[in-house]
Amino acid sequence: MKWSDAYLDQQRFNTDSEADDLVARLFSAGKSAELYAALGWSPAQLLQEEAHPVAQFVRKARAQADWLEPKRLMRSRAFFVKYGLEIMFLLGIVSLPFCYAATPGNKALYLSDKMRKQAAKRLMDTASFVMAVLSPGSWENGSALLAINKVRLIHAIARYYLSKQSAWDKQWGAPINQEDMAGTNLAFSYIILLGLERSGFTLSKTEKEDFLHTWRYIGYLLHIPEELLPGSLGEAYVLTEKIKTRCFAKTEEGQVLTQELIRFFQSQLPDWQGRLLPYQMQVFLGKEVSAYLGLAQHPIWTPVANAFTEFKNIQHSFFTKSESFPALLRQQAYIKGLPLSGNT
């Protein structure tokens, strides 16, 4: 079996050794402040500092995969321009909660105080990454590669700290391990496609396969093993169900993370939309995953959320989708202006 339990068990102890080695080396040399400072540099600075080890790392491109089809990346960017606003909405109410349901992977988020106390920042960082890898021109100007390699270092820093905490049980595997990374990649690709279709949009097989192909390449550049990067929608379904069977469960960590995310959204939305939001999550996540996350059914709001979703589905079925990218850019500008410190 391609994704046997034995294989996936092994991947729970595997990480990105190249990023881990650089972080460990810099911390051992007392250069943690230098590392954090470099991660905040602009793309121009990272390109100028030729000798700096962090700049060298984030500029380094992995050998091109022999299965990569650049034209499919181009088509996916057009897809993102068309559906960008909807993709970002689904990222917040479906993809992140989907990741929170996976344990023990969700413990890495739960045990990180910075992430637990800053739902707004976590959402903004995730959205910024997706924008960096899917926006038009991001591959041509090099910003996509820089963003991907920065994330590799951020993950390595988190692993460095979490692995030293007494609360981290080594039987869980490594923090942010390769199986969890594969699940996150699916949450940002395959689960998004399911969410768009649940929203009533009619997607062609080519559009869906191209979007999955793009995230396969992003995962490859994140140094996720190629065996964990599905090459088709059928494979994506099989691996998603396998990870759900292995990892999804009802946990305090998943419920706390989900409630913090909901509270942030509710603080930004009109009252009625905020009340509806948890039940919209249920519509997209399904009863089983919703139950894991502590999202209870409601005699009034659950039917309202279902009716609201079906109404939007009808709208999306009858009206041609126009580009949502300009609206997405305005939304991102607004989110960047939000205060990101303290509990949310």
Automatic annotation (TrEMBL):
Gene Ontology molecular function terms on file: oxidoreductase activity
EC number: 1.-.-.-
Keywords: Membrane, Oxidoreductase, Transmembrane, Transmembrane helix
Protein's UniProt keywords contain Transmembrane: yes
Keyword hit for Chloroplast: no
InterPro entries assigned to the protein according to its UniProt record, in alphabetical order: Lcp-like, MPAB/Lcp_cat_dom
Transmembrane regions listed in the UniProt entry: 80-103
Domain ER-bound oxygenase mpaB/mpaB'/Rubber oxygenase catalytic: 114-302
The protein's name in its UniProt record: Oxygenase MpaB family protein
Lineage start: Bacteria, Pseudomonadati, Bacteroidota, Cytophagia, Cytophagales
